[in-house]
Amino acid sequence: MSATEKLQQHPAFQQAQNKASYYLSQLDKELSKYPVLVSFEQRTQVPKSYAFLGGVIFLATLHAINALASPTSNLVGWALPAYLSVKALESPGHQDDVQWLTYWVVFGFFNFLEAIALRVVLYYLPWYFVFKTLFILWLQLPAFRGAQTLYGTVVRPVFVNVHQKAVSSPAETTVTADNLRDRIATATAD
């Protein structure tokens, strides 16, 4: 019996192989929710879980090469959201419009702050672009709704504060957070 065969029959190896198969099947089940990936699998005959894992490994490799980390991070923050924004504009409902408009406001606010402090951040946090990519994914993935969370807790209060200071006359309508929320709800209902 060869060393490879002995390794494959070892209980620890078999347990690891069973765990890997279980997690791969769970990933495949989760990825089946996305018609684009199902279509990709049918056209290419490459299992969608393998293609997804390959894409993750590819992005991780690009992040490991320092010169490609920033463009890769920006591509993740731009490519899929741009496609889904156009798709949302073409759809009849308005809920997806709000999702992506909120994403772009938060993404733009974040990029503005990043432009001011990037050198300092890179000095203290060498793997910054990996964290930025994970942050961007948190912002855009519907399971987390990170953009809406940050908009409600950071961007909107700053906007309301600046807008209230810009209102010169007390006779004019002051914009409160509730008033702004009502205006946004009215605009999205139209």
From TrEMBL:
What protein family is recorded? Belongs to the DP1 family.
**Which topology term describes how it sits in the membrane?**
Multi-pass membrane protein
Instruction: List, alphabetically, the InterPro entries matched.
Output: TB2_DP1_HVA22
One GO CC annotation? membrane
Q: Any idea what this protein is called?
A: Protein YOP1
Presence of the UniProt keyword Ubl conjugation in the record: no
Task: Check the record and name the Pfam families matching this protein.
Answer: TB2_DP1_HVA22
Where does the source fall among the domains of life? Eukaryota
Which keywords has UniProt assigned to this entry? Answer: Membrane, Transmembrane, Transmembrane helix
Q: Where does it live in the cell?
A: Membrane
Q: Which organism is it from?
A: Ceriporiopsis subvermispora (strain B) (White-rot fungus)
Q: Where are the transmembrane segments?
A: 50-69, 101-125
Instruction: Work out whether the entry's keyword set contains Glycoprotein.
Output: no
